[in-house]
């Protein structure tokens, strides 16, 4: 199948709808993305699935139909209105501009363009309007750690004005892709039934290969995510700071973050302390968050109700609990939040941005069949 | 063996040294405590091992000798100079005063007396002198979460004066006793080789019984430790606040804490943000911590060096790494710290306090053979 030129713009009922390309369709995030495209209200005409050369020709199911995977090349973007990228940053850095040059709006979930001043960084529940101004034709989404907490923070900020943020993360291995999940599963198999984790060095000996991580991840926590960025910081921690500032439109927001990998398959968590310009109450925070799109409040600790990854995995919203006012600061609010790093933390946010663009195309440049 | 009355005060070479009773000798912390008594410079005369009725008569090894376990009763304290308690708070609440009434100084690792204004709360590296003033004859040690970070914080505070503390913990299951460890091991066996942790609810179904925890602990993190204390807080979080204030002698210190249980067997970790009255630098923090007793600096993230529970387990010091100055606050310092919750977090601190008392007894009331 040659994707260029005269392809039909979707089947019956889809005529006139925008054409979508999904780049990275076979990866961990791509797989979730196809699931979301199949579950959500369908706004798309043709959907083209794109991946690396070695996956070309495979057939994947999206919207209940088998679709053949195309090899990544410039002409797959011809006639595409929107291209969603679920690929590593170095791939997006080249191919998102290529998609734009063929006429598509590129939506990128990688780190490649997040801090580019000519690329809006968008979380639809927080700053949807920012997606409309895209000098490079590219819209980016934040990293999964920022996305875990930013929807809840955005709602609270709208009420009270955020001035300081302190975050400690509990990050799942699926954010490192298949090798992260495989490494944890293999290490769990190695430690199951042993006494590992009780004597110095025994865990390293038992798990052997640490895969993509600098230390064992089974029965351990690893205070290092991303890569080293100098002055003691990691790229992931600087990303949380820079992206929170950009999404919230607060370029001088004070942010401190410690990013820690934990032996959880999917769903990031964060312990958040937020300080606002105004006094807060836990009751009002409940009210704000209960009414915020993309947030579920799960907060009755006396009854054992608070979010954990086991509850949030596979779901779309941010689950917020353990909400309380700081004991020593009437402007301080603390909470714990869990969000599926493959859904809202990656695929879902990308799809939502794609849908914003689709709506804009429908409004602004109606396409007739 | 009748422990009361005319027991010999230890064998040859131990004459004149204080007599020690260890209450809770058969528990998880008690086991570590006996190991420490066997490893450390021996300051004790007779050591009596005490546990509940059902463990009486068992023989345990301490200092290379087999010692029969005595059933907890008032007369086990007759002639004891120091009694170390490694038992639940409700047991200590009754038996520590009983030991005092028989003439011993009681050192309690439980929560029973920590916030009693007539009981000093002691971390020997930080406030050893406080152990000398004990109106009730009891000295308490903080909870394992406070102990994870307080030695490093104490050293930094001595230089810069702490004014605000924000902590997120990563707490190991052995702090819940044998049932915590057994629960994690059983859940790990249940999830090993499965796909659990990827779909809503599948983890709860796979692990079944959650043991002492309100949610699965394998492949999960649980933002709840201790019990519910009202206003959204847990007892563990309030303990971190109250104990940090008391040990550091800062009754108005601003503290926020979120305590989270993670699937680690032994060794608590904490992501700490500390704000001081004075400006800080990471270099000076390294220098202070490298010279602080009870602290090991492990901090070269560019070379993959930072502390994890797998490295710190089974060792005595607090392992500190990821040390950096806050990007948006020259008075803010952030670091990650790991400490064995059974050693410094429990048994070691108790033993160290016991040794302080032993030294005081040697100085103040010399006992001749």
From TrEMBL, chains A, B:
GO terms for molecular function: aspartate-semialdehyde dehydrogenase activity. Keywords: Amino-acid biosynthesis, Diaminopimelate biosynthesis, Lysine biosynthesis, Membrane, Methionine biosynthesis, NADP, Oxidoreductase, Threonine biosynthesis, Transmembrane, Transmembrane helix. Residues 19-134 form the Semialdehyde dehydrogenase NAD-binding domain. It catalyses: L-aspartate 4-semialdehyde + phosphate + NADP(+) = 4-phospho-L-aspartate + NADPH + H(+). Its EC number is 1.2.1.11. Pfam families: Semialdhyde_dh, Semialdhyde_dhC. The chain crosses the membrane at residues 20-38. InterPro entries: Asp_semialdehyde_DH_beta, NAD(P)-bd_dom_sf, Semialdehyde_DH_NAD-bd, Semialdhyde_DH_dimer_dom. This is Aspartate-semialdehyde dehydrogenase. The lineage of its organism: Bacteria, Bacillati, Actinomycetota, Actinomycetes, Kitasatosporales.
């Amino acid at each position: 199948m040659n994707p260029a030129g005269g392809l039909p713009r979707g089947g019956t009922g889809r005529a006139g709808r925008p054409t979508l390309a999904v780049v990275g369709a076979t990866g961990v995030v791509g797989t979730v993305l196809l699931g979301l495209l199949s579950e959500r209200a369908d706004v798309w005409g043709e959907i083209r699935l794109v991946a690396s050369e070695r996956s070309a020709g495979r057939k994947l199911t999206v919207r209940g139909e088998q679709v053949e995977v195309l090899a990544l090349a410039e002409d797959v973007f011809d006639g595409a209105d929107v291209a969603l990228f679920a690929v590593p940053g170095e791939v997006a850095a080249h191919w998102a501009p290529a998609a734009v040059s063929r006429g598509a709006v590129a939506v990128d979930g990688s780190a490649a363009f997040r801090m580019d001043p000519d690329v809006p960084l968008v979380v639809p529940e927080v700053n949807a309007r920012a997606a409309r101004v895209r000098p490079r034709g590219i819209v980016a989404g934040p990293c999964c750690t920022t996305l875990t907490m930013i929807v809840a923070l955005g709602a609270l900020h709208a009420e009270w004005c955020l001035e300081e943020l302190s975050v400690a993360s509990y990050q799942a291995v699926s954010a490192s892709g298949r090798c992260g999940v495989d490494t944890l599963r293999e290490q769990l198999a190695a430690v199951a039934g042993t006494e590992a984790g009780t004597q110095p060095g025994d865990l390293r000996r038992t798990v052997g290969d640490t895969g993509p991580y600098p230390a064992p991840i089974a029965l351990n926590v690893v205070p290092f995510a991303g890569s080293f960025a100098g002055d003691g910081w990691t790229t992931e921690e600087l990303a949380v700071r820079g992206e929170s500032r950009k999404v919230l439109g607060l370029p001088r927001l004070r942010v401190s973050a410690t990013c820690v990998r934990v032996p959880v398959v999917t769903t990031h968590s964060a312990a958040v302390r937020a300080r606002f310009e105004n006094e807060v109450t836990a009751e009002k925070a409940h009210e704000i968050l209960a009414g915020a799109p993309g947030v579920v409040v799960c907060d009755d600790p006396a009854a054992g109700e608070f979010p954990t990854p086991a509850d949030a995995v596979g779901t779309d919203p941010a689950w917020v609990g353990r909400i309380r006012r700081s004991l020593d600061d009437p402007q301080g609010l603390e909470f714990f939040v869990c969000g599926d790093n493959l859904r809202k933390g990656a695929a879902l946010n990308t799809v939502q941005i794609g849908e914003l663009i689709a709506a804009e195309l429908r409004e602004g440049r109606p396409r007739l069949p």
